[in-house]
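Milestone M4 deliverable, item 7.
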Amino acid sequence: MAILQNGSIRLFRVAGIDVMIHWSWIIAAVVEMQFRRQVFKSPLWNAAEFLCIFGIVLLHEIGHVTSCRQVGGTADRIILWPLGGIAILNPPPRPWPVFWSVAGGPLVNLALVPATVLLWVFCSYQGWFQSPDLETFVPLLFVINLFLLVFNLLPLYPNDGGQILYTVLWALFGRGPGLMMTSLVGMVGGVAVGILCLLVEQWFLGIFALMLVLRSLAAFGQALKLMRATSGPRHTEASCPACHAHPLQGQHWMCDECLSRFDTFETLAECPRCFKRFEQTSCPECGTKTSIIDWFPRSLKAPAPAEIPPKTPYRATDEWDQEMPQEYY
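Output delivered:
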């Protein structure tokens, strides 16, 4: 990811999103136009085809950004490169927000399917297909968008389909086990797709499948670390107010002032070095931010007031209530 960002050029900014393009995209455009010169009679249509691919991928990534913002996440950068696009997303670390952030991209391609069909029908109705290049170009837009939709939905991590599978397994089995199962599916499926692409001599897709295998392998290592980290002892006296998970024991929190690590549940959200007090504590499991006090159970019922002994009623027969002797007057 850092390599892509360092080699990218900012094209424009829209709705708070920096749209950037990697320098390798330009090389891929030139190479692709050279290999596909025989598809169209005019090279302008080759350029139009590549620009439309650029637009479809950009709309796909904008779908990710929009859905991420809808669930309260942050997203402000899109990077386009020859193997597609990458939206820098930071959704709340819970299954549903991550699921919706990922699903926003394929939903855009799904909406473009009827749009490209209507364009195809409209051009045919207007009689514009007398131009051979246009007759090739419009159906090609439909095929490109449909291919991107289907290929993206394959359950191969980190494809959109693989990340959707991950969010489902995360909700069912937990974050670490869900990521491990998703990475195993991605490695096996990526190898199968890569072999199939090589058999049909689709070298570009074969390279993309190899990248999926490598990313799934990295996710497998990340899942192992995550499972080891979450298997440690926990603070059983505290629990998240939202998901009720007990937090891990240990120095898993870092002060943003002095950069010292500490266990926030031992110090009640106060840095032991610089004594900074943190108003909110984020749950590592669900991402909910609440006050540290809310993590500790307490009785919500007010204690009953102490009983007041009843006042002795007036009784005329008591000794001290009798008529006093005459000499006391």
